[in-house]
């Protein structure tokens, strides 16, 4: 059977090479979409090609198709941006997920009571994906909102989620992870991270003390479904200069745990 050129990925790193059911052209289109980030919302064909490793000709065809479907546009014909219609790709999932759909009132109440920012995230690959958020103030240089992603290993919610992963799955993730020293306090080795994940699971919460960004201290707890599986995490983020680590555990943790119990009811 003759394959269309778009159905063949260049290079030997394609893990799905030889799979007759794998549509490489669709995979490429999704990679092009994911190349856009809050930090890089406008990209040229060559920039996308460099970032994804996809040949420029294939990137051009992907963008042409996405443009015809209303997902991207380039006012000058060279520099592309996502269009609002891209939100439709994630809206169906968010709308059909009870936790994401119903958690906002609980998050808003918790945020107002503590006067701090609160979020819920799930594990998506090696990242956490924000599915709900109530922000009292901006405490990070990174803008966070629903759909934002951060490396799981470096965040309080990610460590809660990773601590409940099966050993084999966790080992695979830790074998892939590139540990970046975001701050002087960032855990800087896989062995130290493993020790921290064991502590997180035993104590039932994760405290991230300025490891992702100086001045940011966050506390997270797990959210369990009726089968006892950790399917999401809830956290509170504070200014490190205003709330100490001990106060996070003594004052904030009980309120976070109460909210987690309430949110767990939405998973039934």
From TrEMBL:
Gene Ontology biological process terms, A to Z: 3,4-dihydroxybenzoate metabolic process; negative regulation of DNA-templated transcription; positive regulation of DNA-templated transcription
Residue span(s) of domain HTH iclR-type: 23-84
SMART domains membership: HTH_ICLR
Signal peptide (UniProt feature, chain positions): none
Domain of life of the native organism: Bacteria
Limits of the IclR-ED domain: 85-268
Molecular function terms, GO-annotated: DNA binding; DNA-binding transcription factor activity
Matches recorded under Pfam families: HTH_IclR, IclR_C
The entry's keywords: DNA-binding, Transcription, Transcription regulation
Gene3D superfamilies linked to this entry: 3.30.450.40, Winged helix-like DNA-binding domain superfamily/Winged helix DNA-binding domain
Name of the protein: IclR family transcriptional regulator C-terminal domain-containing protein
Source species of the chain: Scandinavium lactucae
């Amino acid at each position: 059977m003759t394959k269309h050129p778009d159905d063949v990925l260049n290079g030997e790193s394609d893990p799905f090479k030889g799979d007759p059911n794998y549509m490489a052209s669709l995979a490429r289109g999704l990679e092009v979409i994911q190349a856009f980030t809050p930090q890089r919302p406008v990209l040229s064909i060559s920039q996308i090609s460099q970032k994804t490793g996809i040949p420029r000709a294939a990137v051009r065809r992907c963008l042409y198709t996405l443009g015809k479907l209303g997902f991207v546009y380039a006012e000058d014909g060279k520099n592309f941006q996502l269009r609002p219609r891209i939100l439709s790709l994630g809206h169906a999932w968010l709308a059909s997920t009870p936790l994401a759909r119903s958690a906002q009132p609980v998050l808003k109440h918790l945020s107002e009571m503590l006067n701090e920012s609160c979020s819920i995230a799930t594990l998506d690959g090696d990242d956490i994906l924000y599915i709900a958020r109530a922000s009292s103030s901006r405490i990070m240089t990174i803008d966070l909102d629903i759909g934002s992603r951060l490396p799981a290993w470096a965040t309080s919610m990610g460590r809660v989620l990773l601590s409940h992963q099966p050993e084999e799955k966790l080992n695979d993730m830790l074998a892939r992870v590139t540990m970046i020293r975001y701050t002087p306090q960032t855990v800087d080795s896989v062995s130290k991270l493993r020790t921290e994940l064991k502590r997180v699971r035993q104590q039932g919460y994760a405290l991230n003390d300025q490891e992702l960004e100086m001045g940011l201290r966050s506390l997270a707890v797990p959210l369990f479904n009726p089968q006892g599986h950790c399917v999401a995490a809830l956290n509170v983020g504070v200014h490190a200069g205003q709330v100490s680590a001990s106060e996070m555990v003594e004052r904030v943790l009980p309120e976070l745990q109460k909210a987690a119990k309430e949110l767990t009811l939405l998973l039934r």
